Amino acid sequence: MALALGVDTGGTYTDAVLIRDEREVIASAKSLTTRADLAIGVGKAIQAVLDAAQVAPEQISMASLSTTLATNALVEGQGGRVALIYIGFKDCDLDKHGLRDALKGDPALVVGGGHTHAGGEAAPLDVAALEAFLDSHKGISGFAIAAQFATRNPAHELEAARIISEKTGAPVTCSHHLSAKLNGPKRAVTAVLNARLIGMIDRLIGRAQDRLLELGITAPMMVVRGDGALMSAEQARERPIETILSGPAASIVGASWLTGTENALVSDIGGTTTDVALIRDGKPAIDPAGAQVGGFRTMVEAVAMRTHGLGGDSQVHVMTEGLGGGVFLGPRRVLPVSLIASEAPEAVHAVLDTQLRATTVGEHDTRFARRVPGIHAEGLGAREEDLLERLGDKVLPLSDLLRTRMENGALARLVDRGIVQVSGVTPSDASHVLGRLDAWDTDAAHKALELIARKRVGTGDRLAKTPEELAQIIVDQLTEQTTLTLLETAFAEEAEAFGVPSAELARHVLTQKGLSGHRGLLALDTMLNVDVVGLGASAPSYYPAVGERLRCRMILPEHAGVANAIGAVVGRLTLRRTGTVTSPSEGRFRVHLEDGPQDFNESSAALELLESVLRSEAEGAVRQAGAEDIRVVVDRDIRTARIEAQDVFVEATVTVEASGRPRVATG
C-alpha cells in the first residue's frame, strides 16, 4: 500500500490529505494557516491527517506541496532586494513590460554585450563595468540576468552568472533558463521576479522539509507548478517563479481527479478569493500569454485563471444610498467576527454587548484589530508605530484603537503590510447565523449581524429586520457575484469572440434578463452550456444556488474542501524543454543550443539534433526529479514562407515534454 500526502497552504486554512494507491482519499484535515511561519500550520495539518488516518509517518511514500506564497508575495510586493544585469539593451528598455515597476527601486546595470537574432555576438560583454557594479552594490539577495537574444546564444548570460557567483555567492537567475521565447524585457521581468522569490520559497521549502522530518516522514517532497504539473523541491528552489498560481492549478488537477470531467468550469471559493478556470478535454486551459500576477505579465506557463476578490472571508460593505440599500462583498479579506471571537471571546463579546446597548450603530461597530505575531515591523512612520504600541498583543475594537481620522490611513498601511489584521462581518459569519457553518463562535456572528442589520437605508428603515434576514441577503449577494465571475470566464473563453469585454457582457442587461427567463415581445434565455465544478470548504453552502441561477449542472464532489491538497499529490512530474532552429541564410540551418549555435546544410539534420538534445535534457531532468514510467511527447512547429511557388524554411520551434509519476519511497 502506497500512501501519498498532499498539502496546500491557503489564505485561511492549510489542508492536508492522504491518498492510498492514487485511487482513494482515506483522510483529510485542516489547520489555520500561520502566516508568520507557514511551516507551523503545515505541521499541524499533517499531524491532524496522520491522527485521523491512524497511520505511522514512515508509511508515507511521497509528499507534495501547493502554495499561494509566491503569488501572494508578488501581489503584495514582498521579497528580497535584487539587482538586474541587463546586457545589450538600452536604458529606455527598462520601461517596457513594467520592468522598472518590477524592480521597485532595486538597482539595474545596463551593460554592453548581447547577441544578434542569428546568435552572433553583437558586442563584447563589458566585464569591467559588471565587476565595478558588483563592487559598489552590496546586500543583494539575488541577481537576475537578461541578455539580448540570449535564447539564440546564452554565452553572455552564462559568463555574467559565473562572474557574479564567484564574486558574491548570491543566487543568480538567467532569463534563458526560464523561457526559450524572444522578448528580452519580458524575460527580464520574469527573471527579476524569480530572483526576488528565491530566498522566500527556499525558506518555505526548507522549513516544510524540516517539519516533515520532525514528524518522521522521510519521503521525497514535490511542489506544484503553476500549470498543475509537479516539480521536485530542489527545482522549485531554483525556479520559484514557476510556483505562481500553484494553489489554483492544484485545485483544477484535483477537480479533474475527483470528478473525471472532461469539459467544465472549475470555481474554487476560498477565504480570500474565488478562482475560476476552464478544463477542456480533460486538461486545464493554459494562458498563452504567460501567467499574470501582481500586475506583471511573466513568461511562465500557468493555468488560465481568473481570480476575483470574493470569498468566505470577504468584507461585507453596506450600501445605504438609495431606497432599498443592500450589500457588496470584497475585494479585501477581513477576519470574520466569529473567528476573532473564538480566539478572544471575553474581549470581543464584551464590546459587542456594549455596542448592542447603544441607541445608534457606530462607524466601527463589529470591527476589531489584532497584531499578527512574528511579522517584523520595519521602516514604519510615527503614526503606524503609535498604533502598534497602543495595540500591543491585545484584541482591540477600532473605536478604541483609532483616535483621529488621520490614523485610518496608518491602520490601512499596517494591514497592507500584513502586520495587523482587522475583523468585520463576512459571508462566513452569515453562514454561522443561518446554521450552515459551526466552526467558530456562532453567538458572536449573531450579535455582529444584529448590529449591521440596524443600519438605516435611504427610506429610514433598517437594512434588515433580523440577523437571519441580513445573513440571507449576504449569501444572496455572494451568489450574484459568483454568477458574474463565472459568466465573465465563459464569455472570455468562448471560441467565437463577441467583440465586447467579457466583464461588460456578463453584466449586460440582456444577459441578466436572459438569466431570469424574460418573456415579453422577446423571449430571452441565458444559461451556461457547460458543467461547473464547485470547490472549497464552503462550496456546498453557496454553490447550489449559483447552479440554479446559471441553469447549469453544479458538481459538488466529495472532498471538494481539500481539492487543492488532492491536486498537489495526484499530478505528474513534468518537464518541458524548448529550442529553436533558424535559417540565417539560404541553405544554412542553425540550431541554438546552451553551448552555442551549430550549423547544418539540411533542416532535417538540424531538427534531429535539437530534438535529441532537448529529449535528453527533459528526460534527464524529470528522472532526476524522481519520476518513473516516463513518457515523452515531441512537438515541432515549423514556419515556412511561400516564395516563387515553393515553401521556404523560416524557423522552427521544438518542444519536448517528459512526464512521469513520482517514484514512491520504499522501505
Structure in words:
The protein has 667 residues and is of the alpha/beta class. The protein is built from 22 helices and 29 strands. The strands form 7 sheets. Strands 3-2-1-4-9-10 form a 6-stranded mixed sheet, sandwiched between helices. The longest helix has 31 residues. The termini are close together. The model has no long low-confidence stretch (mean pLDDT 89).
Short description:
By secondary structure, the protein is α/β, with parallel strands linked by helices. It has 22 helices and 29 strands. Strand 28 (627-643) and strand 29 form a beta hairpin.
Write the layout of secondary structure elements.
Blueprint lengths: L2 E7 L3 E8 L3 E9 L5 H16 L6 E8 L1 H8 L5 E6 L11 H5 L4 E4 L15 H10 L5 E6 L7 H14 L3 E3 H4 L5 H31 L6 E4 L5 E3 H6 L7 H14 L4 E6 L4 E7 L2 E2 L7 E2 L2 E2 L8 E3 L5 E6 L6 E8 L1 E2 H7 L1 H13 L10 E4 L10 H10 L4 E2 H4 L4 H11 L3 E5 L2 H7 L8 H12 L13 H27 L8 H6 L1 H7 L15 E5 L3 H12 L3 E2 L7 H8 L2 E13 L2 E6 L2 E5 L2 H22 L2 E17 L2 E17 L5
Parallel strand pairs: 1-4, 4-9, 5-6, 5-7, 7-8, 11-23, 19-22, 23-24
Antiparallel strand pairs: 1-2, 2-3, 9-10, 11-12, 12-13, 12-16, 14-15, 17-18, 20-21, 20-22, 25-26, 25-29, 26-27, 28-29
Helix pairs in contact: 1-7, 2-7, 4-5, 9-21, 10-11, 10-16, 11-16, 15-16, 15-17, 16-17, 17-20
